Structures are given as structure tokens and as C-alpha cells.
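Annex B.
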Amino acid sequence: MNLNIVATILLTGVGATLVMDLWLLLLQRLGVPTLNFAFIGRWVGHLSRGRFHHRSIAASEPIPHELALGWVMHYATGVVFAAMFFLLEGISWAQQPRLLLALAFGLATAVFPLLLVQPAMGAGIASRKTPSPIRNCLKSLANHAVFGAGLYLCATLLAARVA
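DUF2938 domain-containing protein: predicted C-alpha cells.
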């Protein structure tokens, strides 16, 4: 794998995650509750101690530097998702990005929080143990669709820079 491919994957993954974060910031400004990245850090911190599932991640023992760890994991996940996307579509997609493919992939990545992370944090599959599971699922889908749009936007900007 050459350096240009690695750079494309990194820049696209970080950029798409940043687009998602701007979306989350907008939601917060509009009064919509969003994910607390400290809980992601707490969950990851407990993974290193051999604990995968929690009744409630909010009630679990805090981990030192959990907020920073949560943000690092959030961006690392974005880069991993970008790498998976390029494995599926090929790196040539970055030269002629297509929005629908990126949106579909972004939506598909929502499977990860809905079926793995939320249950492990105590919210149940697809947030079923929360007061508003449908709303939470729709928020996850929207957030991940925005990530997909971010993949497209970043690839388009990178392609324009190279051209």
C-alpha cells in the first residue's frame, strides 16, 4: 500500500468524522441530546480490563482520561470505517466519488452502534432499553448518513485538490 492511499484513507476518515462532529454540534446547539464521548472512552477503558458488557455505562466506574480516550476512539473508528469503504469500493472511488454509495455505506455503519456498542453499554439492541428507542435509532441512522456524506465530501475535496 503506497503513501498516497494511506493518506487518502486517513484524510477521508478523519474528515468524514469531523463532518459528523459538526452535525452533532449543530444538534447540540438545537437542544438535541447527543452522544457523550466520555462513555465511549469508559467502555473502551473497561474493555482493556476484560469487561465488555455494562448494565449502564453511565453507572460504571469512570476511567482516567475517558473523554480523551472516547474522542480518540471515535476518530479511529472513522478511519477504520473509511478503510473498510475503500476495501469494498476500491481506492479509485476517491477519484470519482459517488454520493449514493457513500450514503449507503454510512447508513450501513450504523449497525455497529445499534447491534454492538449500545447493547454493550447497557442500552440494549437498537436502544430498546432506553425511553425512546425509535428516536435513538433514527438519530444513529442520521448521524451515520452524515458520516457517509462526509466520506463523499472529503473525497470530492481531495479529488479536486489532486486534479
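Residues 3-35+74-162 form one domain. The chain has a mean pLDDT of 96. Further annotation is deferred to the next reporting cycle.
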